[in-house]
Task: inverse folding
């Protein structure tokens, strides 16, 4: 679920915590403006494999010899409460994340595996207006497991964060899904390193279409995202020299959705990243699913 999982990398590359994010930019690409109906709990499963063949500096150039592999599995439960307010619905959720990460630098490598975080989604507000569907709310991320600042790889970022997201879906016709997600995150300081990551902002988008009129179970389309860091990373309260180590990246790729029922679906998607700065760059392979409990 953490597609920018650099809790890691090399101090020589000044990327010890640059490029990191709890919020899963790139995940919310299919009917993102929808939440469960009143009184229903839905299980969402997110799995991702990130093959970051390079790490990019402030100019977008490769940092020699640095790369990482990252895999994550994140179960999530969202419940919509039976009591709403007119057309507005209220939902809450929780999530966990299991992480595996392997880091390679010149002359060394390291790996870590464990539960990385616990997320609390206290309140979402959602509503539909004709063919437009919206959902918005916040997420609190809390790190779990051990952390060692001397290691190249850790399974958590060792600091809490607050994220906020706004999701929208437009369904101009029954066979179309045009969705987007706006997300941002405020990070607390990593007390072990005195490093505070800046605030990223990201736009995730997805377009899906059911092309087979005789079989509406298949949904084909494309997705992508743009992420840009709005504030500087800081060490001991001061901006990181050389521009604040601000992350920037883009990605695009195809997605395929299969609907077993109107409420049960599996989504497979691939994001190819490009034009990255101050963070890893590679390919992200996603498998996501949802079903009511």
Result:
């Amino acid at each position: 679920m953490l597609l920018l999982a650099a809790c890691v990398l090399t101090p020589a590359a000044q990327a010890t915590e640059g490029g990191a994010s709890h919020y899963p930019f790139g995940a919310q690409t299919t009917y993102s403006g929808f939440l469960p109906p009143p009184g229903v709990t839905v299980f969402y499963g997110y799995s991702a494999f990130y093959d970051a063949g390079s790490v990019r500096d402030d100019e977008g150039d490769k940092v020699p010899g640095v790369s990482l592999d990252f895999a994550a599995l994140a179960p999530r439960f969202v419940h919509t409460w039976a009591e709403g307010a007119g057309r507005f619905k209220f939902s809450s959720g929780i999530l966990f994340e299991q992480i595996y990460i392997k880091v390679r630098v010149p002359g060394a490598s390291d790996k870590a595996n464990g539960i990385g975080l616990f997320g609390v989604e206290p309140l979402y507000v959602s509503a539909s207006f004709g063919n437009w569907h919206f959902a918005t709310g916040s997420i609190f991320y809390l790190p779990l497991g051990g952390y060692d600042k001397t290691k190249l790889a850790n399974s958590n970022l060792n600091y809490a964060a607050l994220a906020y997201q706004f999701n929208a879906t437009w369904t101009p016709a029954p066979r179309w899904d045009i969705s987007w997600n706006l997300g941002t995150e405020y990070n607390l300081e990593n007390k072990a390193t005195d490093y505070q990551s800046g605030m990223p902002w990201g736009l995730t988008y997805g377009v899906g279409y059911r092309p087979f009129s005789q079989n509406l179970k298949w949904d084909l389309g494309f997705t992508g995202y743009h992420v840009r860091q709005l504030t500087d990373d800081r060490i001991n309260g001061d901006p990181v020299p050389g521009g604040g180590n601000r992350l920037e990246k883009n990605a695009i790729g195809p997605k395929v959705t299969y609907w077993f029922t109107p409420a049960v679906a599996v989504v497979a998607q691939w994001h190819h990243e490009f034009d990255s700065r101050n963070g890893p760059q590679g390919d992200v392979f996603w498998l996501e699913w949802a079903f009511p409990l």
Q: What stands out?
A: The two ends are 22 Å apart (CA to CA). Residues 1-16 have pLDDT under 50 and may be disordered.
